[in-house]
Amino acid sequence: MFSEKERCVYEKNQLEQVICQLRFPEILSIETNLPAQFQEAIRGEFPQYACTKDKPAPKLIGAPGNLRMEQQPECNNYHFGSADGIWRVNLTSRFISLACTRYSQWEEFAARLDAPLAAFIQIYKPAYFERVGLRYVNFISRQKLNLENTPFRELIQSYYLGPLAMENMNEAKVNSNTVDLEMDFRGSYPKLHAGPGMVTKNGQQDPERKFIFDQDQFMTNIPVKMSIGALNTLHLQAFAIFRGAITDRLHNAMEPETI
Questions:
Q1: Kind of pairing, strands 95-100 and 15-23?
Q2: Whole-number Å distance between alpha carbons of 10 and 14
Q3: Terminal-residue alpha carbon distance, the chain
Q4: 197 with 171: CB under 8 angstroms?
Q5: Angle formed at CA 136 by CA 46 and CA 152, multiple of 5 degrees
Q6: Smallest Cα–Cα separation from 19: which of 97, 92, 82, 86?
Q7: 167 pLDDT band (50/70/90 cuts)?
């Protein structure tokens, strides 16, 4: 299920989005004051700015036997985007994140994270990170890989396919078939979602049925000085899980290059 094969990058990777998020104990000054100093520190790489209001999920409060859901107030979500729209930093009073929609390799992503994370730590001095997470969202397209007539059972390992792994199963007649898994993996806590599905983008539904492989890796209670090391570990573990989820046929179709 987890591959020990040598790390590689894919010329034709199927990543729709990669997101890194670091959560911290709430810092009220981010909510009550515009992050002008933070913007100045990253404006060269992230010149686009916007602010939206987020509605956090209700919070469970009270003692056992007298629990209730309490609505949380709206909070500011500050957006800082690259000029080409591919990269975006988000900052709230509870988290900082970096997301991209065109991913090449981890080293580039980590380099883009350096300035925002360093500026955030210098300006706001978080005590620690409650959660350090890295999410990879893959939409595997057989059309883009010239595999249109290849069943998913020849591309994805059987443990992520369920009944679709059966040779006599007609994929076109299966409306829903997903695997959702949460586990403890070498000190991190991957949450995996895998299965075929239709994808909607910019309000338009893609007519091709893709295989969605979405993994969210995270660690908890990480000292600030160990955050980069934690992210590096999560990245390597994410590759081990993804490589273990696909067959050699799909691996080769994505045109791997050894690093």
A1: antiparallel
A2: 9
A3: 22
A4: no
A5: 140
A6: 97
A7: confident
Report, as an integer, the average pLDDT of 149-169: 92
- The mean per-residue pLDDT over the stretch 28-52 comes to 97
Mean pLDDT taken over the chain: 93
255 φψ region: left (φ > 0), alpha (ψ -120 to 50), beta (else): left
For residue 242, give the amino acid letter. F
Helix (H, G, I), strand (E, B), or coil: what is residue 146?
A: coil
Helices (H), 132-245: 227-245
Helix runs in the chain, H state only: 28-32, 36-42, 106-124, 227-245, 248-253
Number of Cβ within 10 Å of residue 212's Cβ equals 19
- Dist CA 215 CA 192 (whole Å): 5
- Tell me the sheet residues that pair with 23: 95, 131
pLDDT at 60: 72
Q: Tell the burial category of 144 from Cβ atoms under 10 Å away from its Cβ (0-12, 13-18, 19+).
A: middle
Reported as half-sphere exposure (CB side, CA atoms, 13 A), residue 258 has a value of 2
Whole-angstrom distance, CA of residue 127 vs CA of residue 21: 16
Q: What is each CA distance from 17 to 56, 137, 154, 185, 252, in whole angstroms?
A: 22, 5, 24, 22, 21
How many Å is the Cα radius of gyration of the chain?
20
Q: And the tokens for 111?
A: 């380099």
- Note the Cα 17 to chain centre separation in Å: 7
Instruction: Give the mean pLDDT of 90-99.
Output: 97
